[in-house]
Specification:
Shape: elongated
Radius of gyration: 32 Å
Order of helices and strands: HH
Largest sheet: none
Structural class: mainly alpha
Helix content: over 70%
Number of domains: 1
Number of strands: 0
Length: about 80
């Protein structure tokens, strides 16, 4: 129980109104705001990824030329565990 002191006849109804408002609206609005922010958060990342994809598309022909040039060269096969000295 909360002790409101000398002004309890004013503070108690005000406390009940603020408490009701907090329980009724703040929690609901908090859920709505957090869920919408969660949905809008990936939008800048998607735009950035689109730019990266466009840059990769410009480099792809050069990579294809390099891959065709070294297509028949195989990598040496190491036996044993990696980083074994």
């Amino acid at each position: 129980m909360v002790d409101f002191g000398w002004l309890s006849f004013l503070a108690k109804p005000l406390f009940l109104i603020v408490n009701w408002f907090n329980n009724a609206f703040v929690t609901t609005w908090l859920v709505i705001v957090v869920s919408h922010r969660h949905q809008l958060h990936p939008v800048p990342l998607a735009a950035f990824q689109h730019e990266v994809d466009e840059e990769d598309a410009g480099v792809k022909p050069q990579i294809d030329i390099i891959n065709a040039k070294y297509k028949n060269i195989g990598l040496p096969i190491r036996k044993g565990r990696p980083n074994q000295e």
